[in-house]
Q: What sequence folds into this?
């Protein structure tokens, strides 16, 4: 029988790999070859650790939970438009220099665009 920590690790990675669509809790415990009780306990433990969120959902006439990872796998798309990659001042840009990321308007706007997207996504759920 696998250790509980191993099952939690596998479960977390399964949920992360589903991306934004999430996965049903019942699907998770089936893939782990665990009982529904073990699967529920693992999901609750991961939720209590702040690693996943659970949303109640009716599936095939039964109530279950859809599990979503609070972390998403990184992708190149997350940094593809960072202004630093094409900035002509990049060679002179240092933390406390005249040209600095601390006071760069383009970098600040780029970062704030992510905050706007996050706020919009929170409103959609």
A:
């Amino acid at each position: 029988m696998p250790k509980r920590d191993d099952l939690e690790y596998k479960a977390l990675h399964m949920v992360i790999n589903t991306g934004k669509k999430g996965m049903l809790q019942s699907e998770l415990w089936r893939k782990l070859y665990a009982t529904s009780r073990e699967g529920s306990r693992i999901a609750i433990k991961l939720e209590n650790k702040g690693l996943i969120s659970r949303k109640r959902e009716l599936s095939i006439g039964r109530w279950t939970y859809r599990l979503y990872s609070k972390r998403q796998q990184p992708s190149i798309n997350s940094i593809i438009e960072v202004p630093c990659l094409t900035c002509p001042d990049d060679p002179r840009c240092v933390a406390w220099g005249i040209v600095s990321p601390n006071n760069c308007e383009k970098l600040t706007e780029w970062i704030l665009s992510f905050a706007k997207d996050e706020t919009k996504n929170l409103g959609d759920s």
